[in-house]
Amino acid sequence: MDGVDTSAKYSPTLPTTSICSLPPELLIEIFATSNRSAGPFNPLILSTVCKLWKEICIASPRVWQLITVNKTWRPISSIQAQAQLWIARSAPLPFDVDVDLADFERLLPIMSCFLPHISRWRVCKISFNGRTAYTSLSDLTLSAPRRVLHHLDLRLKVPFDGDGDDDDIFFSCGTNTFRHVSMKIAASSLPSPDLINPLLFTSLDITESSFTHPVRSPELLGFLAQCPNLEHFYFHGACHEEGILSTSPPVVALPRLHTLHMVLICIQRSVLSHLHLPSLRELYLRHLNVDFSLHGYHMTEEGDSDDEAHDFSQSPSSDHHTGMGLRKLISRSHPPLEILNMDLSDMRTKDFRWVFDRLTHLKQFLIVGSDMSNEVVRLFKPEPIKTNVGDSVRGVRVRLPQLTSLKLFGCQQISGEALVDALCARVHYTDVATPNETFTNVVISGCDGFMPHHGLELSLCLHGRLHVSY
Question: 33: how many CB neighbours lie within 10 A of its CB?
Fold first, then answer.
């Protein structure tokens, strides 16, 4: 009709659609996708928009599958809280880790938040100063259904100092069904135990690269306290002295540790004295001898008095520290030690006697470059046990009763006569009394006092069990 506006009658009606009316499944995908470009707290921000979004975010593990730690100086405690929340809310789904570091020294404290959940990792991306280490856990572990933490290789040096060996952080070994995941990092110092969650590795190597990155025993022990599952520990130092401690470090219990290597360190007494290792079976001490005087210990203990034997030594101070450390370790832990290797690592005669009296499970003893005297050699010889009345013999005592392998290399202070006397007397007794716990392998090499005629005489007792080189 004239004068009547009929345009509304023919205009199409455009439906209005709110994002809140989208199906929850689609919202979840939108939220999860937005995490890639939004900030690290995107799920938390989305959950504040409205009640519906909050309910969807909290109820949907898919939204929390990306855990981002951006380049920030946030306290480690804040990062740990974020990691715990994301890991809990993403369960049981796998998750990705994206860490952009402002300081590479913070890598291990940050990653310690995620390492206990290695079985759920999908992708791990670590960035620092233009470098990126990208690890697909399914590729790394060959899609094995089971993966566990195994080894941590910690090198104390300036990260990325030009040796080109710091880019590959994770590596793996094992079978198609069971994979060990290991980690290799560099740091200028050990992280404070207050900053790291328990590290569930079963194997640990710590290497000091130079005198500029030394480890003091309290720092080392504090770090070891955060590694409760250790079974193997290798510590290679740079022979750095730490001075006299003001107080005793806490004792650290490693109930599963069965193998300990200590190489080129000067803090052996403090470390050994504060470890509780009830399962220790193999102990390797290498290059602990030094020809200079070490700082004194912060307290006096039984056994610190001078060695009554007054035997010659080129390394009297380190002999004292090594012996006293071993005494404390053995008296505290009573370990079932089966292998003791001492390569350029010595003790005083009184320490050898004390140690040999208590290592009843020892099967193999190897020593290289020792100044041990004939007094120590005589400890291998059976001793008659006398009564208090009349000095009559009531039995025979054999130190190290399960010892089957003895290897002596470059021990220049012992004589051939003492070796022949002690070892022949031992096998004459043990071959008959304890045939399953007698010598099966004796090696004597480069010991100047052991001459060919001594070798001939000893071979009449040991026969094919003796191996000699002059």
Answer: 10
